[in-house]
Amino acid sequence: MFSQFSHEIGIIAGPTAFQSDYGEDKNFDNIKGNIGYSVGIVHYMNLALNSDCDCFNRYTYFNDHFMIRNELVYMNVTLDHFGKWVDPSLQSEVANSLRAMHGEVNVIDFGTQLEYYPIPLREFISGNYIFVPYFAMGTQANYYFPSNYSDYGNIITQNEEVFLPKYQNGQVNNGARVAFSATANIGIKIKLTRDSDLMVDMRYQFYFSDWIEGMKPDPSIYTENQRNDSAVTLSLGYIFYL
């Protein structure tokens, strides 16, 4: 089944909303405020099409409804606190300290996923359908290097002076690390030419770590930050058949 297949390669880019320990979990102000971008390259193993003869492989349900996608993606998001705790009307020490905090997360993702197409791929490749939807799940290895700082001073040498107790005593780390994540996608491919497609993709990414942005307040105390970090990305892509 995997001995003969074709390759596709493409580029993707789009906005990313990053949910972290900046602000409260599921707070819409933080979701819309902490938006960055992602850009990457994707590679497909098309199991329905045989590149040796430019013909279709013998039909099986799997090769006509599934594709394997590999990708390398870079994500960058700058982070600030948003919401009621930093409302301009509040001039408390807590509000001022939160407004003075800033962060940036940089992540390089490498992973793979399995895409399912309810419409037969050979029908789409042949041009019998202008577009096809797909659903996907996968895993990623993530190399991340965050940065957190305060307008009040250096967080490393003056941690207790510039950050609230919530972020003291080792709850901030700007070092580079590796984590893993799970992804779930929904998208659509649109036929442009015989050898190229346009792709619109929506992805939810759940990290198996709460350190992606470099902070981890004690979740047993600070219940507003109990979840691991996550991201939602809307991408536009161009795919070319090799």
Automatic annotation (TrEMBL):
Highest taxon in the source lineage: Bacteria
The protein, known as: Glutamate dehydrogenase
Organism: Neptunitalea chrysea
